[in-house]
Amino acid sequence: MEKTCPFGEKRICNDTCPLFISPKELNEFMTARLCSLGVIDRNDGECSLKMLALSQGRMIFENTKTRG
After folding, report:
1. Given 27, 35, 36, 63, which residue has the most CB atoms within 10 angstroms?
2. Closest by alpha carbon to 41, among 7, 18, 50, 16?
3. Could you tell me the pTM of the whole model?
4. Distance between CA atoms of 40 and 32, rounded to whole angstroms?
């Protein structure tokens, strides 16, 4: 499935985009941690904005207590 950029004219999100982060650009520890949390795929890269949103969403989820 091709990923499209939310900015501009439906550009495909790949390594030609400056916002794209490849797992090769991260160290192994960071890649393993983000993969285990489901933020990034070990083989495919991700848009940095989407990665940021997923990371922050996970942080909010883990640090929010509901009253019941």
Report:
1. 35
2. 50
3. 0.61
4. 9
